[in-house]
Specification:
Radius of gyration: 31 Å
Distance between the termini: 88 Å
Number of strands: 17
Helix content: 40-55%
Strand order of the largest sheet: 2-1-3
Number of domains: 6
Amino acid sequence: MVIIRQINRVFWIYLLIAVLCFPAYAKTNPHRNPMKDYSFKIPRGLEPNVKFWKDIYSKYTTRQSVIHDARDLSVVYEVVDLDPNASRRRNQRRINAVIAKYKKALRNLSRKQKNSRLTQFEKRVKKIAKGSYYRASRNLRAQKGQKDRFRDGLIRSGMYEARINQIFEEFGLPQALTVLPHVESSFQIGAYSSAGAAGIWQFTRGTGRLFMKVGYEVDERRDPILATYAAAKLLKLNYETLRSWPLAVTAYNHGLEGMKRAKRRHGSDLGKIVKSYKNRTFGFASRNFYSEFLAALEVAHNYKKYFPGLKKAPPQRLVSFKFKDYIDVRTANNYFKMTPDEIAEYNPALRPPVLSGSKRIPKGFIFKAPENKVKNLAAYYRQIPKKHKHGRQIRSKWYTVRRGDNLSKIASRFRTSVWKLKRLNNIGRSNRIYKGQVLRLPDPYNSSKSIRVAKASNKVKRTVTKKPQTPKETVSYKVRKYDSLSRVAKRFNTSPMMLTRINNLRDPDSLFPGQVLKIPKSVIVSQAVEASKKVAPVKRNTAIKNFDIKVEKGNQKKAPEVDFSDVKIKIADINGTPPRKLNKNRPAFLPVSFVSSEKTRSPVGIITVDFDETLSHFADWAGLSILELRRFNNLSRKATLHVNQKIKVPFRRRTPAVFEERRQEYHRAIQEDFFSNYRVQKVIVKNVRKGETVWEICNEMYFIPFWLLGNYNPGKDINELKPNDSIIIPMVTPIKTEAA
């Protein structure tokens, strides 16, 4: 009993001391939140990887390519200096030749005996290489330097880093995570990968839809602040699930489910996972993502050491207002006193259909403007007349090209002209379209449909504006190659908006060679004629003969000079210069067929699942819940859709026409985004090897989306490829890189 009493006494004494000392300990202990105050250290075994990426970010520029071992980043064979004046293809051929040289030497070393005579080059390679020479020959890889790109990203980051830090503080996340955009995009708002990831945080469509609006009119992945909220939510979810920041950061690239599998097999040691985890999707990018993050963290936090004299851009000062109606972009331009470039720059979430005027700025959109130019957006918004505020979006009408179609047939079918189809869909002089291409039909067809719907509902009255009067004298000009509306306007001393109005241009960015424009006879033309008379006694038309000009008469009315021609976000040629045999491609998706069902009195459509489509998409387009669709199709919670699978969709809340429109817009947006950033350079034929999967072909070998590979192989199920199957591979190249 005495011993028990003594133990109790000691226990209560220690408890009293703990209670008295805890507040002081808590006050002095800075590590109260393990999630927020985590110290990011290099996991054991990843030190060479982090050093390699530090060199990539701070030592080698984009004009240098490092030939290295993909598994052991401490092995660097050579740094190839690229020719800045050469084309991308020429530099790539040079890199391939260097890799082939090292591969040949490593293969020779793997075959030669210990005492065999070696060339000087083979002796050098032998000193560098580690482990099996044959395995090293298969691990050769080229990594382009990023020093200049990282430097530009540091400058751009100044515009957003204060707000990004504030958002991560609100979520209780480590501030170190805010450097991830340096790894993903170098803070380029318009960054777009061949896999479909967009924005500074590089969200894919599927992941982005979990946290943001990703649609045809608005894509919030491109807004750096809205995407930051989504990134904070995703990173917090990853950490709360994995309970490890190295794993949570890697999951940002590899996916949460993939890292959960890796943790179950190898534990929470990322160094061990990188070394031992075998999975077809856990490739070079996923293995190195955390090492890239640590390297970027070191360079970004010590940028003055690595980039002396660098000054970051000043933070953006913006005002915002949530729209209560649907507003045309030209209305916003006129009443907010902003140029089209400014609207696109400060509202990067708006997609090209809205910026070109074919769609309205959606109701509920948070519009942003520079603080130094627009003090009170709400006041400006109240000045907009009711006739310019709309209660609904402009309806889209799409057509999916079928086998045997051409532009003439489609134009005749929908009572329009080939010229209008080409202008609206940015089709070049070749008039080439392909099976499965989604074409937008001209506005007269769409507007007539919209008017009938408005009259029937008696709720929304469509405002018909009078056609603006043209100047008294106009001249005709035939568009040349490389012409833009602003270039033509500048040549004739007029405004792009004037040209847009007198030519009834719906999309000013879609000029094509051979197109004839009406141009007001300006002072500059008269001056040219007078100047030519002074030089030599020639006829009046001689001075302007090269412009193919003739005079026409009309009514003159002054138009506001608003430049819509140089908007930075443009829709590129949707064809993407496809090859000659692309007319064999399958449709983007098969038409909907209907069946009767005892489960519902509403029509039921049978949908053939296409690439990038999920049950969530079908539910959203049909106005249903995912649970409703699962029950209707007897699908379990773990069931996933696969391409060409048949799904039944009841149309009890939305009509098949609305479902079709939203589905078309979804696929159209994917095509627009891809072909605005990439073009198909050529095609090759590949025989599938044993063990190769479609995921490896698309994501590790050729970096192309699944839907593009499917379009070039219409008669095959690319998800069921077998060894020795021949498939067509479209080789894509970045448009922006070529332009640079």
